[in-house]
Amino acid sequence: MKDVHFLISTLAILAFATFLASASDPSPLQDFCVAINDTKSPAVFVNGKFCKDPKLANANDFFLSGFQIPRSTQNPVGSTVTPANVDQIAGLNTLGISLARIDFGPNGLNPPHTHPRGTEILVVVEGTLYVGFVTSNGDGNRLFTKVLNKGDVFVFPIGLIHFQLNVGHVNAVALAALSSQNPGVITIANAVFGSKPPINPDVLAKAFQVDNKVVDYLQKQFWYNNS
After folding, report:
1. Rounded to an integer, what distance in angstroms lies between the CA atom of residue 41 and that of residue 18?
2. Do residues 122 and 156 lie in contact, with contact meaning Cβ atoms separated by under 8 Å?
3. pLDDT tens-place values along the chain, 227 residues long
4. Which residues have C-beta within 8 Å of that of residue 198, sequence separation ≥ 6?
5. For residue 188, which phi and psi values (nearest 5 degrees)?
6. What is the C-alpha end-to-end distance of the chain, expressed in Å?
7. How far is residue 7's CA from residue 3's CA, in Å, rounded to a whole number?
């Protein structure tokens, strides 16, 4: 029965995402453009990927298995994101849609992050999540939050900082669809304090209005990537 609910949730969120796709990636002018890494083969470069000859495409180019399998959340943030984008499903190239599974341990967090190229719509499959996003500077950086239970759906607009926190005492699972085959992700803490090379501490100390010693401490931490 759980597998049935998982399948229904997946289909529902993909259906929602199709309405969002036109807001990000442009519509393709062909049936598909299966991504290929072999640049020596005759190919056309579209949306950051080389495309294989359509006549050589097959069903496996549009297929990914194992999305129902729980992922380990034994890490510093207590969550794991499993993507299904153009890097995992070559046939998604130019189609303007992707999917992600997010597993949360108790109190697990998907840290504040943004998707620069896609709007996200999320459905809770199991558990209870506290979610939210922050609007842009021009809108006053307003915080929108909601506690979501199983079956609840929430939208995170393109480019805005957002997060999900498991507020339950058991594991939680969510599925997220995004309006891009390659939405990208920027985890705020990782980008600001874990960049390579590091951002000048004077910049961060002034931006966050803290002492340079605080910045130095934060830059020396290990910033875990949960995806």
Report:
1. 31
2. yes
3. 666 566 566 655 665 555 544 455 666 656 777 888 766 655 555 556 778 888 999 999 999 999 999 999 999 999 999 999 999 999 998 899 999 999 999 999 999 999 999 999 999 999 999 999 999 999 999 999 999 999 999 999 999 999 999 999 999 999 999 999 999 999 999 999 999 999 999 999 999 999 999 999 999 999 999 98
4. 219
5. -60, -55
6. 28
7. 6
